[in-house]
Amino acid sequence: MTLKEKFSLILMQFWASDWESQCEQAADEFAIGFAEWHLNLSKSDDWEKFDYNTTEKLLEIYKKEKRL
Questions:
Q1: Of 5, 33, 50, 51, whose CB count within 10 A is highest?
Q2: How many CB atoms lie within 10 A of CB 38?
Q3: pLDDT of 5 above 70
Q4: Is the pLDDT of residue 51 over 80?
């Protein structure tokens, strides 16, 4: 499920008392996933196959690879 879809589900339930914590949890899970992917990639030989020059480009690559 994409981050956008997760937030949509959470925000459609805006009456839930813990929607803020659910949004924070979704963002944390996404950030941790990206950081772990980046760390693992930087330790592998696959690093050189990517053409990137910004963090935004790396994020695009991550989302495409993970189908997010």
A1: 33
A2: 16
A3: yes
A4: no
User: Cα–Cα distance between 31 and 57 in angstroms, integer?
Assistant: 15
Instruction: Name the one residue in this structure whose structure tokens are 């008392």.
Output: 17
Predicted confidence (pLDDT) at residue 16 exceeds the cutoff of 70:
no
Inter-residue contact 63 to 38 (CB < 8 Å): no
Nearest to 66 by CA among 44, 34, 41, 42: 34
Residue the block writes with tokens 């996933």: 33
Long-range CB contacts (within 8 A, 24+) of 60-63: 62/33, 62/34, 62/37, 62/38, 63/2
